[in-house]
Amino acid sequence: MPHSLSGVNVHLVYGVKYRSPLLNPAIFKRLFGFMAATLERCRCFPLEINGTEDHVHCLFVLGRQYSIAKIVEELKKSSSKWLKTNGSEHSNFYWQTGYGIFSVSYSQIELVTKYIRTQDLHHRHMSFDEERRALLIKHGFSLNDWDIDD
Q1: What's the whole-number mean pLDDT along residues 103-127?
Q2: pLDDT at 125 over 90
Q3: Residues 44, 69, 105, 122, Cα dihedral to 10°
Q4: CB 13 within 8 A of CB 44
Q5: In terms of residue numbers, what domain contains 125?
Q6: 27 burial level (CB within 10 Å; 0-12, 13-18, 19+)
Q7: 88: nearest Cα among 141, 24, 38, 17
Q8: Residue 3 located in a structural domain
Q9: Total domain count for the chain?
């Protein structure tokens, strides 16, 4: 039996550099599968991954071995490299520098999972910037706390 335990649920959101709509829905399944495998290599347990043409959402249980910053770095670095090998349209692909990360209580896992799973519905009426603002307000941040202009 392990001597340490982690039960920290994390909602991670980050976008494509300059919020460019470079992610084609045809690649989502493979990209999100690659991201889930990356989380597993970091000893995290992926719960839901989805996104749109200009950003992604990941819900996962944080493992004990790596810091959040290291996990985000590995997710962004490895998925960017992977995308660049999957078609010339991704040859100059980059993620934005920043990210938003929010804690999720166990009682809210189902709600957040559904929210992430239905991203296509949300973004018929809401831009990534509007979603970012709503997340910041919901979690008690200032609207300037997460800059996505790069």
Answers
A1: 92
A2: no
A3: -100
A4: no
A5: 9-138
A6: middle
A7: 24
A8: no
A9: 1
63 occurs within a structural domain: yes
Task: Quick: pLDDT tens for 57-92.
Answer: 999 999 999 999 999 999 999 999 999 999 888 888
Instruction: Say what percent of the chain tops pLDDT 90.
Output: 67
CA distances from 23 to 53, 56, 133, 141, 144 (A): 4, 10, 22, 28, 26
pTM for the model stands at 0.89
Name the CA dihedral angle for 79, 80, 81, 84, rounded to a multiple of 10 degrees: 120
Task: Using the structure block, give the residue that is written with the tokens 């100059």.
Answer: 92
Residue pair 61/45 in contact (Cβ under 8 Å)? The answer is: yes
Helix (H, G, I), strand (E, B) or coil at 39: helix
